[in-house]
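Request: Not sure, any thoughts?
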Amino acid sequence: MKMNPVVAVSVLSILLLSSCKFSKTLKNPDIEAKYKAATEYYNAKDYSRALQLYDQLSSAVRTTDKAEDLNYNYAYCYYNMKDYTLASYYFKRFYTNFPGSSRAEEALYLAAYCNYLNSPEYSLDQSTTYEAIKDLQLFVNIYPNSKRVSECNDLIDDLRAKLEYKDYRIARLYFRMGDYNAAITCYNSILKDYPETPHREEILFLILKTYQKYAKESIDAKKKERYTRAVIAYNDLMKEYPESQFRDEARVVYDKCNVELQLLTSPKPKKK
């Protein structure tokens, strides 16, 4: 669809006038006028131009009563532009520089929340996820009575679930690759690091299943020990989940392990 030539010219003229006005504002040495213009651009959601003016004003207003508002808006510019890395940095800096501000609590929360928003999908590096958990927990520790504590705890749970799922997928990958020892180590780490995991029952079953495969493919000298560990894993599962959804399959694996143990421990007939 083509734009009406008259409309196109009008739009272009407005853009040019706006650009000229902004250029003049950038060159204007009047601090008050520039600060007023920056605020107007910010309120109009023109965050890119507001940032440019705030950058010029930063040193000039550092020791004035405008410094707090400028730094607060500066962080929010990046937040509204969805640059959560820089937003987190500047919200944290605001909290550090203005600890007595009525907006300090909000800034510390948003610094953590931006890292939460930056947390990538589980298959990628999770450094930002760990940073977000640390920052959210810091907020809870500093403001235990804040109305945001409940939300922070929910966000932490969400991030921990992602880390747990990453470890789970890694364990499953090790199993498919035949690295059973590494898979078992990962499963046990999940149970240790995430004791309240909703997948505990499944993981206990997978440990049993993995030990059975591990024993089956081990050298003869290691088979007895690993089949025994599989039996212990079965008992652990049944002790915690006597009505487990994996009970029937687990019993089949358990019986196979016991058969192998009997064969391994039965005295071999003497040669004549």
Observations:
- Residues 30-81 form one domain.
